[in-house]
Amino acid sequence: MSRRNTLRGIHGTKVPPGQAKFVTCVRGSALDIAVDLRVGSPTFGHYDVTLQSPETGTAVYLPDGVGHAFLALTDDTCMSYLCSQEYVPGTMIDIDALDPELALPWDLKEPPIRSDKDAAAPTLAEAAAAACCPPGSSARRTRRPRCWAGRRARKAEKGRSVSGGRRPPFSVFPHAPCGPRRPPLSGVPRRGHGRGCGPSGLPGGPGRRGAPPARPGRAPRRGTW
Fold first, then answer.
1. Based on C-alpha coordinates, what's the Rg of the chain?
2. Of 86, 64, 83, 66, nearest in space to 18 by CA
3. How many CB atoms lie within 10 A of CB 209?
4. Identified catalytic residue from 11, 46, 68, 175
5. Is 46 a catalytic residue?
6. CB within 8 A of 134, min separation 6: which ones?
7. For residues 145 and 49, is the Cβ–Cβ distance under 8 A?
8. In this model, does residue 120 exceed pLDDT 90?
9. Is 81 a catalytic residue?
10. Residue 199 has pLDDT above 70, yes or no
11. Contact at 8 Å (CB) between 82 and 114?
12. Rounded-to-integer distance, Cα 13 and Cα 197, Å
C-alpha cells in the first residue's frame, strides 16, 4: 500500500533469471509507467504510460527486461503483482525514476515520497555503462511469420498454385485468388475426368477416343470411362 504522491521504481530484474510481471491496481489510483531497459533494443529508454484504477480494470504485462514504476495518485493505493517466478536476491535492477534523460511524465506538484534505495538509484545511462541492464534481443533475427493468404495471392498473380502447379489463366471468382476452377456444364463431366472427354471439356472434343457430338434435342451419348 502507498500513500498519495508516493513514487516507486524504476524496478527490473536481470536476465537471467528474469521475471515477467502482470501488474494491476486493486485499490486507489496510480500512474503506471513501463520502461524498456534492454540494451540494444530498438526501443531502449522508451516508456509507456497507463492510468490504473479498479474502475478502469486496466492491467499491464511487463516482459523480461522491462522496468516498472508507478506514482500513487490517492491514499491507500494498492498494486497487485503476478510474477512468472519467485524473487531471487541480488537480481533486482534499480533505475532513478526522475532520470532527466528519460524525462518520465510524472507531472509532480510537489517532491514525491521515495525510499532511500529508489532515491539513490543510478540513471539509465549509468546502469547501462555498468552492465546492469539486460541485453536486448534485437541482434537475434526472428523468423517472419508466414501469411498464407498473401502467399496464395502472389502465386495466383503469377498463374501458379501454392503447390507449384500451373493454374488456369481464368477464374469465375475474380475476388478470390484461390477460387475453384471453371465449373463444368450441367450434365457434362469435368475436363480430364474420363477418357471420353477431350481438352474442350465436352464429349467428342478434339481429344482421344471421344464420343460423337450430341444431336440437337437429344442427350449426349455417354463416353468410355
1. 34
2. 64
3. 11
4. 11
5. no
6. 12, 13, 14, 15, 18, 37, 38, 39, 64, 65, 93
7. no
8. yes
9. yes
10. no
11. no
12. 72
Amino acid present at 78: C
Place of cell 491514499: 75
What is the predicted pLDDT for the residue at 144? 46
Q: Residue type at 169?
A: P
Q: Quick one: cell of 71?
A: 506514482
Phi/psi at 130 (nearest 5 deg)? -90, 10
Q: What is the pLDDT of residue 223?
A: 57
* SS3 per-residue string spanning the chain: CECCCEEEEEEEECCCCCCCEEEEEEECCEEEEEEECCECCCCCCCEEEEEECCCCCCEEEECCCEEEEEEECCCCEEEEEEECCCCCCCCEEECCCCCCCCCCCCCCCCCCECCHHHHCCCCHHHHHHCCCCCECCCCCCCCCCCCHHHHHHHHHHCCECCCCCECCCCCCCCCCCCCCCCCCCCCCCCCCCCCCECCCCCECCCCCCCCCCCCCCCCCCCCCC
Look at residue 1 in the predicted model and tell me its pLDDT.
Answer: 84
- pLDDT one-digit tens code per residue, 66-94: 999 999 999 999 999 999 999 899 999 99
pLDDT, tens digit (0-9, with 9 covering 90-100), for 156-180: 666 554 444 444 444 444 444 444 5
| Annotated catalytic residue, options 81, 87, 175, 193 | 81
The whole-angstrom separation of Cα 141 and Cα 95 is: 28
pTM: 0.60
